[in-house]
């Protein structure tokens, strides 16, 4: 019976929403501060931020030097 | 019948009440946003990465790529019906895996480097052993009733899949059977990402929602809304407390798990193309997002500003990835090329 299905679905939805409603939430300002702090702490170890020295660049094509 | 209708009305009222409660709770902690907080963060300036290699080999659109844990090998999938495993330092092809079905949509490398998996419109996830003398099919995971949009290995014995049938699934590779089916999305699941501690995962779907799941319990713990169209891409922020999504609504968003809401949107009036893929640099500061406009745009994740672009593809950028050592970014495109930048 489609009405029984609908009720079953609605009950499931209520159960799910109860789970989601029940969680603890922290302030966005704290969340943002923590994200910023993580980025700052790891910035120096982020090759795409600080750059990759040519000698250490694994993707750079190693071409021999040409003496003109 | 009347009793049924009465019960439906009660349930509907309870749903509405709970939704209002959730929104109120979110609003209650919404005391500021990411970009204003990021005012004090150091500027990243203009991020100008150079094209280091163009990997030629596929003969049709590339749909997916995934780095190996060694940050050197990488696997790509194309609708030319092949998976190619590349040595990105030399540009050489290491392994070619011919696919039974050319309509591949996703590929993944196992953390061990021994296995790769792929799937697509065949509704299956096929796992291959690439360390054998020639690539050997290990398992065909066949139970989804919709296309395979994404797959990710937990280990050589477990793999996660996301499907157009709206479910995600955890499989046991030793038995080839489903261990847990994650149901809650009401639209095709397009993408999934494992948390750094692998206790949870996030999924993005065509219902424009992102969901956080308990990997072992099988339950949906949180649902995040905000996008107005399909979410095509999803990745965790490196500390596991936040994640970034990319959508057909032309924007990317960062959501924080602990405050249970969106904290910043990455969008630009001049960008009118859907986001197909995204990846983050190791510190989480840079977001590389692939768009339908043939470019990969680079965003400052904290300040919400566009700080660079990777231009060079001649068609949609369909996939992006940063290896574990963070040394570069790979873009894959419908133009059949993969490009490496740093």
TrEMBL record, chain A:
Q: Does the keyword DNA damage apply?
A: no
Every G protein gamma domain range: 3-68
- What is the annotated localization of this protein? Cell membrane
Reading the lineage from the top rank, the first entry is Eukaryota
Instruction: Give an example GO biological process.
Output: signal transduction
Keywords from the UniProt entry: Cell membrane, Lipoprotein, Membrane, Methylation, Prenylation, Transducer
- Per the record, a Pfam family? G-gamma
InterPro entries per UniProt? G-protein_gamma, G-protein_gamma-like_dom, GGL_sf
Q: How does it sit in the membrane?
A: Lipid-anchor
Q: What are the annotated GO cellular component locations?
A: plasma membrane
Family membership: Belongs to the G protein gamma family.
Its assembly, as annotated, is: G proteins are composed of 3 units; alpha, beta and gamma.
The protein's role, per its UniProt record: Guanine nucleotide-binding proteins (G proteins) are involved as a modulator or transducer in various transmembrane signaling systems. The beta and gamma chains are required for the GTPase activity, for replacement of GDP by GTP, and for G protein-effector interaction.
Name of the protein: Guanine nucleotide-binding protein subunit gamma
Protein species of origin: Pagothenia borchgrevinki
From TrEMBL, chain B:
Q: Which SUPFAM superfamilies match?
A: WD40 repeat-like
Keyword Coiled coil in record: yes
Residues in a coiled coil are 1-28
Q: Tell me if Coiled coil is a UniProt keyword of this record.
A: yes
Q: Which GO terms describe its biological process?
A: signal transduction
Instruction: Give the matching PROSITE patterns.
Output: WD_REPEATS_1, WD_REPEATS_2, WD_REPEATS_REGION
Q: Where are the WD repeats?
A: 55-96, 141-181, 182-223, 224-265, 310-342
Keywords of the record: Coiled coil, Repeat, Transducer, WD repeat
Fetch the InterPro entries from UniProt: G-protein_beta_1-5, WD40/YVTN_repeat-like_dom_sf, WD40_G-protein_beta-like, WD40_PAC1, WD40_repeat_CS, WD40_repeat_dom_sf, WD40_rpt
Q: Which Gene3D superfamilies match?
A: YVTN repeat-like/Quinoprotein amine dehydrogenase
- Pfam families, alphabetized: WD40_Gbeta
State the family named in the UniProt similarity comment for this chain: Belongs to the WD repeat G protein beta family.
In Swiss-Prot or TrEMBL terms, this protein is called Guanine nucleotide-binding protein G(I)/G(S)/G(T) subunit beta-3-like
Taxonomic source organism? Pagothenia borchgrevinki (Bald rockcod)
